[in-house]
Amino acid sequence: MSQLAIVQKLFEFAILVFALSLHEAAHAWMASRLGDPTARMLGRLTLNPIKHIDPFGTILVPLAMLFLFPYGDFLVGWAKPTPVTTRNFKHLWRDDILTTLAGPVSNLLGAAAATILLILLARLNASAAGVVRAYAGGLPGPGLNGSSAAVPVAMILYLAIWLNLILAVFNLIPLPPLDGSHILRHFLPYKALRFYDSIGLIGLLIFLFLGGRLLGLFVDPMLGFVNAVLMNFAI
Fold first, then answer.
1. 154-159 average pLDDT score
2. Domain that holds residue 65
3. Of 9, 22, 24, 179, which one is the catalytic site residue?
């Protein structure tokens, strides 16, 4: 593996950790707004990754996917679940779902913010525009060896778009303990709920090894839309 490839993978890992921190902080913020101060009092309403890191889901799984079992267009991870005390909510069903959705929505907003910043940067810097052509359009670009400091910044912004989209979709998958499962379990009868909760981490790990293409069915159209926006407005 070349030094260039290693640097890019380390960039991807760092961006993923930040995106996971954004995701969990959004859960904490929404829960606090809806009357549950648990996560805020435990210091989880922060973008500081140290407060959110899960050694397995935030460190080991992403690094293994990057360096041992490279998936190419599929990189995910998870952080420590944000603690929520649902009895503090005034409207249990509604507030729990809103708190759950805050995580994926924060990643979508993160992808949107990175898109806007990349458009602005590409309009101001020709080398950054070259990065957009390379990533979004599949056309020749300057690569990471470009002379301008805008090149790695543009690359980071594009990776932030990609990873935030993946996390938003991944977390909406209805497998425990992902966010999608917290929504689905509100609609399941008690007996089905007991079996559903028992799936746990095993089901998630199976998906990690088999579900990359399934995830791509949702992420690829979203990324394609972003690429079209970038090609139309950034160049």
1. 95
2. 3-233
3. 24
